[in-house]
Amino acid sequence: MPASFLEFLAGGLLQAKLWQLALYLLVVTQLTIFTVTLYLHRSQAHRGVDFHPALAHAFRFWSWLTTSMITREWAAIHRKHHAKCETPDDPHSPMHKGIGNVLWRGGDMYREARRDRASIEQYGKGCPEDAIERRLYTPYATLGPVLMLLVDFVLFGAAGVAIWAIQMAWIPFWAAGVINGLGHWWGYRNFETTDTATNLVPWAVWIGGEELHNNHHAFPSSAKFALRKWEFDIGWAAIRLLEKVRLAKVLRVAPSLDVRPNIPMPDADTLKALVAHRFQAMTDYQRNVLKPALREEAAAAGAKLRALLPRKLRKALADDGRWLSPEGREQLRAWVASRPRIQALIEHRARLAEVLEHRSHDAAERLHRLQAWCAQAEASGVRALQDYAARLRGYALIPA
Q1: What pLDDT score was predicted for residue 358?
Q2: Residue 364: which residues within 8 A CB-CB, separation 6 or more?
Q3: Which helix (H) or strand (E) holds 272?
Q4: 38 exposed, middle or buried (CB, 10 Å; 0-12, 13-18, 19+)?
Q5: One domain, residues 203 and 276
Q6: Are residues 166 and 280 in the same domain?
Q7: What's the rounded Cα separation, in Å, for the pair 95 and 102?
Q8: Residue finishing a domain among 200, 217, 250
Q9: 189 and 275, same structural domain?
Q10: Are 67 and 268 in contact (CB under 8 A)?
C-alpha cells in the first residue's frame, strides 16, 4: 500500500514492480485479443461457435470496457469486408487503400466504416440487441475505456495510465492494422482464394490465431483456423478447452477432404466436395498443373525459371494478374499468348472455375458441366492435366 499521496500517484494501490506491470499488461491485452477473435469474429460475425450466455456476456463486457467496440458494428464491418473483399467498397483493403494506411490507420478506417449506417444495418443482423446493449453498451460505448483508465490508475498510478494507453492501441494496431493490412500483403498462402489474404505465420499464438488469415478466407465460417498439420491456432485451443467445460459449442469447422481412387466419372460426392473445397481445387491446379508446365517451358528454352518469367508474374499466373498494374497485366497477357500450351492450361482452369463458382446452375447441370470438363482434360494429351482430372474425380468430403 502507498505510504503517501505522491506514492499513490506514482504506483497506485498495488505499488507493483516492473515485471508485475508487464504480466498484467500481457494478460489484459490477450484477454482483449481473445474477446475479438473468439466472440466478435468466430461467434458473432461468422457463427462458427456459440458460447454459454454467461461467457458471451463476459466477452461483451470486456469488449465494452477495453475497446468501446459495439458488437453489431464490428460484425457488420467484418462481414462487409468478406462480401466486398479487395474492391473499392472493402472497408480496409490494402490493394485499394494502401498498405501503409491500413497498417497505421486501421483504427481510423474502422471508425469511418462505423459511419456507414446503411452497411451496419445490412450486415449487422443477428447480433445482441437486448436491454443492456440498447441502454449501456451502445449509447455509452466510450464510458467503458474511461472506467478502464480509472481502474488502471487506481491500481498502478502513473504506470497504469501508460498501460491503459497501450491497451487502447492494442486492437487498432494488431487487429485493424496488422491482420487487415499485413494479412492481405505478406505471408504464405495455403489456398488460392479470390483475394490477397495470407497466413502471417503457421504458429498463431500472439493475435489469438488470426495470423492464419488465408485459411480463414478460404473457410470463413470455420471456428478452426489451423488447417495444415504444422499449423497451430491458439484460439481453437481455447475453444476446445471451453467446449470440454461446456462453455462453448462448435457449430462449424472446415470440412475435411478425401480423395477416392479409381473414380471413372465425377459424381454427386465429387461436386459436393468441390463446392466446399473450390479454393483447394484451384490451389492444386496451380501447383500440380501450371507450375510443372512452367518448369517444362523453361527446360525446353534452356533457361532457368526466373529468367523465363519473373517471380512476380509467375505468382500472378495464379489469379490471371488480377493484382498487377495495367502494364504488368499486359506483359503477362502477352507472355501467355506467346505460349499456346500455357494459354490452353489457363483456359482449362477458367472453365473449371466457372463450374465451381457460378451457382446459377442447378446441381445436375453443374455436375454435367464438371463431367464435360474432366472429359476435355482427359482428351488434352497433357499428362499433368490428365492426372489432375483423375484426382479431381475422386474428391469427397470426409464425414464429420
Answers
A1: 72
A2: none
A3: helix 268-276
A4: buried
A5: no
A6: no
A7: 10
A8: 250
A9: no
A10: no
Q: What is the pLDDT of residue 360?
A: 62
Which DSSP symbol is given to 169?
H
Residue with cell 442447378: 362
**Cβ proximity of 283 and 191 under 8 Å:** yes
What does the alpha-carbon distance between residue 354 and residue 161 come to, in Å, rounded to a whole number? 55
Q: Minimal CA–CA distance to 86: which of 20, 184, 176? A: 184
Q: Which of 198, 225, 250 is the last residue of a domain?
A: 250
Structure pTM? 0.93
Positions in the chain short of pLDDT 70: 1, 3, 359-361, 400
State the residue for C-alpha cell 482427359.
378
Which residues does 137 contact at the CB level (< 8 Å), separation at least 6? 60, 64, 70, 71, 144
Number of Cα atoms under 13 Å in the Cβ half of residue 34: 21
Geometric angle at alpha carbon 380, from 301 and 189, rounded to 5°: 70
CB atoms within 10 A of CB 100: 10
Residues 283 and 174 in one domain: no
Q: What are phi and psi of 51, to 5 degrees?
A: -115, 155
Q: Which residues contact 221 (CB under 8 A, 6 or more apart)?
A: 46, 47, 48, 252
SS3 state at 395: strand
Domain count, the chain: 2
- 153 in the same domain as 49: yes
Q: Are residues 116 and 196 located together in one domain of the fold?
A: yes
What's residue 236's pLDDT? Answer: 98
Please tell me what DSSP assigns to residue 16: -
What cell does 46 get? 461468422
- Torsion angles phi and psi, residue 46, rounded to 5: -120, -5
